[in-house]
Amino acid sequence: MITEKVMEEMFKPRQAHWRTSITKVEPNRLTTRGRLQEDLMGNISFSEMVYLLLKGDLPSDNPKKMFEAVLVSFCDHGVTPPSTQAARLMASAGSTVNACLAGGILAFGENHAGAIEKAMKNLQEGVKLAEAYGRSASETARFMVEELKTKDQKVPGFGHRYHTEDPRARKLLKLGKEYGCSGKHVELALEIEEILGREKGIKMNIDGANASILSDLGFNWRFGCGIFAIGRLPGLLAHVNEEMSSEEPFRKITELDTV
């Protein structure tokens, strides 16, 4: 027989359990990836903390410097990106700082910020293909370019609206070689650049360079847009602050003709 007490226990609201292996929260104690947060503070850089959160361990010296260079390379591209324009327009409209930043990030899409994720996925699949079929980087690059061409698709990570040669990409590739962080993904990206450069004069852009380097650092392609957001957020904040402090509210961007 089910008693009233048993019924109460059966239908007692149960607290939902959230599980995470990232940070353990205890009274007066925070442990992230097995390390006390107060021990990390003052002893590691912000980029190392990001690496620790995403990868589960601290990077050694050269990957640390490489990852920091990647984040710096994302910092800002003036008022040209849609995300910066969106954040500044919201600031001009009187939105709060956090709303402006959110608006900027929400402006990331297939044509802006999405390219790095696409490029990472493309390169990671390409390397797996090369390894599975015993193809060289050159053969794989040719196959990938031709396949995208038949689909009338651009190769993500190559070509830029403003730069015939993206200065950030060239520096990152140089650092990757210097730090020993260039591997099969960078090799494949360079082979693709060789083909596109010869056929169309197209060079690797910042997304292609970062996609190949992050892939060689062991990041899954799904991290691509998120890592970009981490690097770009300070730039968005600077633009929002500039808009709020230096420009008239609700300012006109263009004159509109009425009919």
UniProtKB/TrEMBL annotation:
Its EC number is 2.3.3.16. It comes from the Archaea. CDD domains: CCL_ACL-C. One of its GO terms (molecular function) is citrate synthase activity. InterPro entries: Citrate_synth-like_lrg_a-sub, Citrate_synth-like_sm_a-sub, Citrate_synthase, Citrate_synthase_sf. GO terms for biological process: carbohydrate metabolic process; tricarboxylic acid cycle. SUPFAM superfamilies: Citrate synthase. GO terms for cellular component: cytosol. Keywords: Acyltransferase, Transferase. This is Citrate synthase. The lineage of its organism: Archaea, Methanobacteriati, Methanobacteriota, Methanomada group, Methanobacteria. The gene is gltA.
